[in-house]
Design goal:
The chain is built from ten helices and 23 strands. By secondary structure, the chain is an alpha+beta fold.
Length: 367
C-alpha cells in the first residue's frame, strides 16, 4: 500500500508536529458510565473502566497517504525518531522509551479501584531490573457533586504488622478488610490534583473521572485489597501483598499527605485572559505539570522535553505554529495530545467553537 520511503518520511513528519494516538477503551469490574457519554462509545456495553489515550507503548497511530489510512504501533515513532520526539536530555535519561503516560479511569456510576501501591525505585531496580518506577498522580477531570474521594496514604498511629495481617486474611476470604481503619479517605472535587509518589498506598473512589498522569515503566501495580470482588471472568483478581508490604511508605500519614500530596498548586504567572499554575508533581517524581486557564492564545515552549497535554475544560482548542512548522491541529475536551520536543514554540488557542469559553489544559513534561 505504501513504500518504505513514504513510511519513514511519515515518521519524521509525526516527530515534528503535534499528534494524537488512537485511544482504546476497556471495561472493568469498577468501570463507570462517563466515557460512554463523553467519548461516544457503545452504550450497550456494561461499562468502560480504562482509556489509554497517550501511551505509545500501548496505543497505535494512524497515518494517511492519500486515500489510504495505515495503522501502526505508535512506539515506531519513539524507536525511529527518539531525539526529535523526546528531546536530547530526555533521550539521554530514558533512551528509546516514552516516559510519560496519560490514561483515564472512569468510576462514574462504578466502584472503587483496587487499593494498591507502586514499587519504590530501588525495589523495581533490584527486583524487576527496571531503572525507574511508576510514580503517578490523579487529576480529577470530573466527579459527582458530593461524596467523592480518593484513598491516599495512611492514618496516624497504625500498626503495620496488624494491617498486613488483616490484608492477608482478607485475601484468603477470612475477613472483609476495613480500609478506612488504616487509609485516609480524602474528599476531592473537579480539577483537584492528587500526587502519588511510588510507595504511597492509594486508589480512586467511586463516582470520579480521573486523568491519571504517570511515569511509564510498563505496569507494576501491587494490589493489596480489591473490595472482595472477582474479575469480569468470574475469578478472583490477583493480589500482591508479598510485594506490596515491601514498598509501603509507613511514614506517609495524614498530615504529610495533606501537606505534600493534595492540591500543591502554585501560581506561576497571571495576565488578563491567562493564568498559569504549577500543580505538581512531588519532588520524588520526575514529571512537572502545569495548568493553563485561558480565554485567549497561550504561547508554550518545549522546555527541551516532549510535552503531553489534555484539554481538561472547554469544547475545543487548536495548536498553531508561529513560524508555520505545522498546520493548525484541533483537539477536543478530554483528549490527550503530544507535542514533540522538536516543536520548540507553539500556541494553544480557542477556536471559533470555543470563543468566550474558559479553556483549561494540563501539561506534563520531564523536569
Amino acid at each position: 500500500m505504501i513504500t518504505g520511503e513514504a513510511f519513514v518520511h511519515a515518521l519524521k513528519v509525526v516527530a515534528n508536529q503535534p499528534f494524537r494516538l488512537v485511544p482504546y477503551f476497556d471495561p472493568g469490574v469498577w468501570g463507570g458510565q462517563w466515557m460512554k457519554e463523553v467519548c461516544g462509545l457503545d452504550r450497550s456495553k456494561p461499562n468502560y473502566a480504562w482509556s489509554f489515550d497517550g501511551v505509545p507503548e500501548e496505543n497505535s497511530l494512524y497515518l494517511r497517504f492519500g486515500d489510504i489510512r495505515v495503522e501502526i504501533p505508535a512506539i515506531d515513532v519513539v524507536f525511529y525518531r527518539p531525539r526529535a520526539l523526546l528531546g536530547e536530555r530526555v533521550h539521554a535519561r530514558f533512551g528509546d522509551e516514552f516516559p510519560i503516560r496519560f490514561d483515564l479511569l472512569d468510576t462514574m456510576g462504578g466502584g472503587n479501584l483496587s487499593l494498591q501501591v507502586h514499587p519504590l525505585t530501588e525495589y523495581i531496580q533490584q527486583t524487576f531490573g527496571m531503572h525507574y518506577t511508576q510514580d503517578e498522580s490523579y487529576y480529577i477531570l470530573d466527579c459527582a457533586e458530593s461524596d467523592t474521594y480518593v484513598y491516599l496514604g495512611l492514618k496516624d498511629n497504625i500498626k503495620p504488622t496488624e494491617m498486613i495481617a488483616e490484608l492477608k486474611k482478607a485475601s484468603r476470604g477470612e475477613i472483609v478488610f476495613d480500609a478506612e481503619k488504616y487509609v485516609n479517605k480524602i474528599p476531592v472535587k473537579k480539577h483537584d490534583h492528587v500526587l502519588i509518589p511510588a510507595g504511597t498506598i492509594h486508589c480512586s473512589g467511586k463516582n470520579t473521572m480521573v486523568l491519571e498522569i504517570s511515569a511509564t515503566p510498563y505496569i507494576f501495580t501491587f494490589k493489596l485489597w480489591d473490595w472482595g470482588r472477582v474479575g469480569l471472568d468470574g475469578l478472583p483478581r490477583p493480589i500482591h501483598i508479598g510485594h506490596g508490604e515491601q514498598v509501603i511508605c509507613w511514614d506517609r500519614t495524614t498530615d504529610w499527605v495533606y501537606d505534600n500530596l493534595v492540591n500543591r498548586v502554585e501560581q506561576i504567572s497571571s495576565e488578563p485572559g491567562i493564568l498559569e499554575e504549577k500543580t505538581g508533581l512531588h519532588e520524588r517524581e520526575f514529571i512537572e505539570t502545569r495548568r493553563h486557564i485561558f480565554t485567549k492564545p497561550v504561547m508554550h515552549s518545549s522546555n527541551g522535553s516532549v510535552c503531553v497535554f489534555n484539554l481538561v475544560e472547554g469544547e475545543e482548542a487548536e495548536i498553531i505554529s508561529p513560524d508555520g512548522q505545522f498546520p493548525p491541529f484541533p483537539v477536543h475536551y478530554a483528549e490527550t495530545f503530544i507535542v514533540p520536543a522538536s516543536v520548540e514554540r507553539y500556541i494553544i488557542r480557542p477556536t471559533a467553537k470555543s470563543q468566550g469559553q474558559r479553556l483549561m489544559t494540563i501539561k506534563a513534561y520531564v523536569r
